[in-house]
């Protein structure tokens, strides 16, 4: 009985408009920030190095370089603080977690670009 109630409560907070992205993709995450009584949107862009969890607790980690220093942020996909996720380019990877990028600097952090088709286009063809 309690599992059913938890599933119903979680189902109300799951987003349906989340774009499909994978580890290695370069994304821009629009984050809602509340400062006092004002609200603004801040964009955090970088490479997705990890996707973990499932359901309402699914998260993804984005890494970018700022002033020669690596910055990583973990975002819950279904959080109301995450306004939008925009996929800029796809990256070809052979790993599920890209922690090896932490040791790389400069051009060595680049991944090969891959063009992904949208799933709706694949089902129509």
Description:
The chain has 125 residues and is mostly beta strands. It has a single domain, classed as SH3 type barrels. It has helices at residues 2-13, 119-124; strands spanning 26-35, 38-52, 59-66, 69-76, 82-91, 113-114. The longest helix has 12 residues, at 2-13. The chain is globular.
Number of E-state strands: 6
Q: Which residues form runs of ≥5 with pLDDT under 50?
A: none
Approximately how much beta-strand content do the residues carry?
Answer: 35-45%
Structural class label: mainly beta
Helical proportion, percent range: 10-25%
Assembly type of the chains comes to single chain
Strands of the largest sheet, in order across it? 4-3-2-1-5-6
Query: Helical element count?
Result: 2
- Structurally, the number of domains stands at 1
Shape from CA axes? globular
CATH architecture classification name? Roll
Q: What is the string of SSEs from the N terminus onward? A: HEEEEEEH
Described by strand count, sense and barrel closure, the largest sheet is:
6 strands, antiparallel
CATH class: Mainly Beta
């Amino acid at each position: 009985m309690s599992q059913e109630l938890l599933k119903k409560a979680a189902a109300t907070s799951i987003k349906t408009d989340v774009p499909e992205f994978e580890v290695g993709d370069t994304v821009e995450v629009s984050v809602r920030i509340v400062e006092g009584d004002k609200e603004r949107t801040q964009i955090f862009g970088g490479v997705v190095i990890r996707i973990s969890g499932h359901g309402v607790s699914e998260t993804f980690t984005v890494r970018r370089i700022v002033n020669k220093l690596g910055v990583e942020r973990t975002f819950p996909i279904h959080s109301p603080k995450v306004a939008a996720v925009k996929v800029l380019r796809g990256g070809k990877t052979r790993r599920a977690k890209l922690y090896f990028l932490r040791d790389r600097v400069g051009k060595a952090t680049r991944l090969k670009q891959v063009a992904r088709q949208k799933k709706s286009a694949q089902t129509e063809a």
